[in-house]
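Posting this for the archive.
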Amino acid sequence: MNIIAAADLNWGIGKNNDLLDNIPEDMRFFREKTLNKAVIMGKNTLLSFPNKKPLPKRLNIVLTRDESFECEDAVVCHSIEDAIKCAKESYKDEDIFFIGGENVYSQAEKFCDTAYITKIDNAYDADRFILNFDERTGWEIANEEMLKTEKGIYITFVTYKKIIKD
């Protein structure tokens, strides 16, 4: 399973339930990776989407402790284990993506073997963060690709792989 996120220089991922920046190149990367796959997210991540609607052409699984929460065109689960079980009914591990937020990422790490992190060469005033994969034991960089965005900001698409230990 996979983690996918965009993070600034301090591993910030959001502020006030929104992305730190709108970077079209990162949005394209996210779309390419997750289209026709399963995405698992927290309720606040769903509520940050345009019109608070699930992402099209994906199985949207929303994690929440709110037992009364319902969402059209999404599956609602109340534990990460239930969300994973639901996703695995129709998708292989490599086609399951955890897409946020902060709490979901921290719970998901132990289940994932790949993390796609778009590193943004900028520091923002973030209030939500993701694990620093550069400092996480058991993870290593498998691939990096840097580019200058239309906005003039440098981003690096970094693929981290979990090191399997015997």
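The chain has a mean pLDDT of 96. The CA atoms of residues 149 and 166 lie 41 Å apart.
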